[in-house]
């Protein structure tokens, strides 16, 4: 058996230590005589896993009691609809910032539920930058402002938030737990697990409790955030194995020294890769340097006809899934928390050798 460096944008690499622990506990979880997949979600064993995952996340992100942590199903894409369905009740509109493909998808779904006010868009710049927050056309009577602070497909990330009294709702699917955030600045945070948290099947939601008052009884029962909060995310059977794996990833993160420690590693990883790309005439990254993503690093080759060869040879060199998203092409290295610095070094070494072999005559 050999494990490769996996640059997939999602489902993404998980820490090897977590996979090994899950393997060791697979047949008999802590003496229960069954795997986590086989136990009742209402058993004391699973309830302890759920409570542990919640408590660890609250510690890792320093989440106050003003917030509920929910484990929701359906992927982040379901939340694109579920959020306006729950949180625009009593309001005429919602504000959305458009910074790329995932913002656009969130906007499209929200329009099915409410009037959407796109407060700014960097579409004309091909989503290579973030609109100036000073120019945002914010309607302070809207239900909320939605942002996507890491555009996974474009490779664009921003850390600051606009100044507003609106609750800010952030899709942190590809950046949660990769950097320190101040949760108290958000009305709600949500993140599909399969980028930085665990396997697909669960979405982490952190929602300010006062917003739960907006959730209407007319919503489908399992879609209602207030119901989910009142029932400890267990109105029906939750994705138990995904929650268990998330708990193991949180535990691993605590062992690494928490979010601040992993952020330092993430900064270093992204820096060496971007520095290498910038120093080369053969590779290029199109994103405004102020907003380059630490998690998703897209790059192009000077000669696009070499792309399929690059992918073929990188795969053979044990560097998996470097193709860019089908909507943008090129390459993309997704380097979430679980990607070690050694993976970045192996990638750079491959890129250097590939350039040396193919850059002649250019
Ligand atoms: C992957 C991703 C999504 C979609 O996640 P699904 O779980 O596939 O619905 C949404 N937003 C962002 C920022 C993502 O990276």
From TrEMBL:
Protein residues bound to pyridoxal 5'-phosphate: 76-77, 102, 152, 171, 194, 236-237
Keywords (A to Z) from UniProt: Amino-acid biosynthesis, Aminotransferase, Cytoplasm, Pyridoxal phosphate, Pyridoxine biosynthesis, Serine biosynthesis, Transferase
Cofactor binding: number and manner: Binds 1 pyridoxal phosphate per subunit.
Assembly and oligomerization: Homodimer.
Limits of the Aminotransferase class V domain: 4-347
Function per UniProt: Catalyzes the reversible conversion of 3-phosphohydroxypyruvate to phosphoserine and of 3-hydroxy-2-oxo-4-phosphonooxybutanoate to phosphohydroxythreonine.
Modified sites of kind N6-(pyridoxal phosphate)lysine: 195
One Pfam family from the record: Aminotran_5
Pathway: Amino-acid biosynthesis; L-serine biosynthesis; L-serine from 3-phospho-D-glycerate: step 2/3; Cofactor biosynthesis; pyridoxine 5'-phosphate biosynthesis; pyridoxine 5'-phosphate from D-erythrose 4-phosphate: step 3/5
Similarity field: Belongs to the class-V pyridoxal-phosphate-dependent aminotransferase family. SerC subfamily.
Keyword Cytoplasm applies: yes
Residues noted as binding L-glutamate in the record, renumbered to the chain: 9, 42
Record-listed E.C. numbers: 2.6.1.52
Descriptive protein name: Phosphoserine aminotransferase
């Amino acid at each position: 058996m050999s494990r490769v460096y996996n640059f997939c944008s999602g489902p993404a690499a998980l820490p090897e230590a977590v996979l090994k622990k899950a393997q060791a506990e697979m047949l008999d979880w802590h003496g229960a005589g069954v795997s986590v997949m086989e136990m009742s979600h209402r058993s004391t064993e699973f309830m302890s896993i759920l409570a542990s995952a919640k408590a660890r996340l609250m510690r890792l992100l320093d989440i106050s009691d003003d917030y509920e942590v929910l484990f929701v199903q359906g992927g982040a894409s379901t939340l694109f609809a579920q959020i306006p369905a729950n949180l625009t009740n009593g309001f005429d509109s919602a504000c959305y910032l458009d910074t790329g493909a995932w913002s656009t998808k969130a906007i499209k779904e929200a329009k099915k539920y409410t009037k959407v006010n796109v407060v700014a868009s960097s579409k004309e710049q091909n989503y290579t930058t973030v609109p100036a927050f000073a120019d945002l056309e914010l309607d302070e009577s809207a239900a909320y402002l939605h942002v996507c602070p890491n555009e996974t497909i474009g490779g664009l990330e921003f850390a600051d938030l606009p100044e507003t009294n609106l609750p800010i709702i952030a899709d942190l699917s590809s950046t949660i737990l990769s950097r320190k955030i101040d949760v108290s600045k958000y009305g709600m945070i949500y993140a599909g697990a399969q980028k930085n948290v665990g396997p697909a099947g669960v979405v982490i939601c952190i929602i300010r409790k006062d917003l739960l008052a907006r959730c209407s009884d007319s919503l489908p029962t399992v879609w209602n955030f207030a119901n989910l909060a009142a029932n400890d995310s267990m109105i029906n059977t939750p994705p138990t194995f995904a929650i268990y794996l998330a708990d193991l990833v949180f535990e691993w993160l605590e062992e690494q020294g928490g979010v601040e420690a992993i952020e330092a590693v993430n900064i270093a990883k992204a820096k060496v890769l971007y520095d290498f790309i910038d120093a080369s005439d053969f590779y290029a990254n199109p994103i405004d340097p102020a907003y380059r993503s630490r998690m998703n690093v897209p790059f192009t080759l000077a000669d696009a006809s070499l792309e399929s060869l690059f992918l073929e040879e990188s795969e053979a060199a044990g560097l998996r899934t470097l193709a860019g998203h089908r909507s943008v092409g090129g390459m993309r290295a997704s380097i979430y928390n679980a990607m070690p610095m050694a993976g970045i070094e192996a990638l750079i070494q491959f890129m250097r050798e590939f350039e040396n072999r193919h850059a002649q005559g250019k």
